[in-house]
From TrEMBL:
Transmembrane spans: none
Ranges for domain DUF4142: 46-181
Annotated organism of origin: Flavobacterium beibuense F44-8
Ranges annotated as biased composition (Basic and acidic residues): 33-43
Superkingdom in the source lineage: Bacteria
Region annotation (Disordered) ranges: 18-43
The protein, known as: DUF4142 domain-containing protein
C-alpha cells in the first residue's frame, strides 16, 4: 500500500512539475517501470524496456502511416501505409493487454523523437515524401527486427520471449516490403 501511494505521488509529482525535463512519454514510462521493479526484480525492468520500445514504435508507425495515406502520391506506398496502420494498431492493442497483465507502464503519447520525425516528414515536399517515408520505414523496421530478435532470445520472461518472436514475422514482412518500395521509388527517379 505504501509503495502504491509513493508511486502515485511520484507520478503526480513528475507530471505536475514544470521544471521536470522528463516529459517525453517514453522516458516517463521507463522511469515508472524502474520505480516499480527496481527493488523487486531487475529482470522485469529489463523486459519492460522491450514493451516501451514496442509501444513507441507502434505509435510512431501508426502516426506516420496516417500521414503517408494523406500525403503520398504513390498508390503502392498508400497501400503499404494502410497495412502498417492496421498491423501496428493491432500490435498496440495486444501490447497494452500484455503490459497490463505484466504491470508494465507504456508511453501514453508519441515520444519527442517520434514527434520530431513526424514533423520533419510532414514538411517534406510532395515529390520527396514517398522516398523519405519509405526510407524511414526501412530504417525503423530494420531496428525493430533487431530489437525483437534480441528480446525473443534474451528476455527473462518466457511470455515476453514468445511475444517478441510472434512479432518478428510481421516486422520482417514490413521490412521486406519497405525495401521493395525503396527500390521501386529509386527506379522511378
Amino acid at each position: 500500500m505504501l509503495l502504491g501511494a509513493a508511486l502515485i505521488t511520484m507520478t503526480l509529482g513528475a507530471t505536475s512539475c514544470k521544471d521536470n525535463k522528463e516529459t517525453d512519454p517514453t522516458e516517463v514510462a521507463e522511469e515508472q517501470n524502474e520505480a516499480k521493479f527496481e527493488d523487486t526484480n531487475e529482470a522485469k525492468e529489463e523486459d519492460a524496456e522491450y514493451f516501451v520500445f514496442a509501444a513507441d514504435l507502434n505509435m510512431k508507425e501508426i502516426e506516420l502511416a496516417k500521414l503517408a495515406q494523406q500525403k503520398s502520391t504513390n498508390a503502392e506506398v498508400r497501400a503499404f501505409a494502410e497495412i502498417l496502420f492496421n498491423d501496428h494498431t493491432k500490435a498496440m492493442e495486444d501490447l497494452k493487454k500484455n503490459a497490463e497483465l505484466k504491470n508494465i507502464s507504456l508511453p501514453t503519447a508519441l515520444s519527442e523523437d517520434g514527434k520530431e520525425v513526424y514533423d520533419k516528414l510532414s514538411k517534406e515536399k510532395t515529390e520527396d515524401f514517398d522516398k523519405k517515408y519509405v526510407d524511414m520505414m526501412v530504417d525503423g523496421h530494420e531496428e525493430a527486427v533487431k530489437k525483437m530478435e534480441k528480446a525473443s532470445e534474451e528476455a527473462n520472461d518466457e511470455e515476453i520471449k514468445m511475444w517478441a518472436a510472434d512479432m518478428l514475422p510481421t516486422l520482417k514482412t514490413h521490412y521486406n516490403e519497405a525495401v521493395r518500395l525503396q527500390d521501386l521509388i529509386k527506379e522511378m527517379k
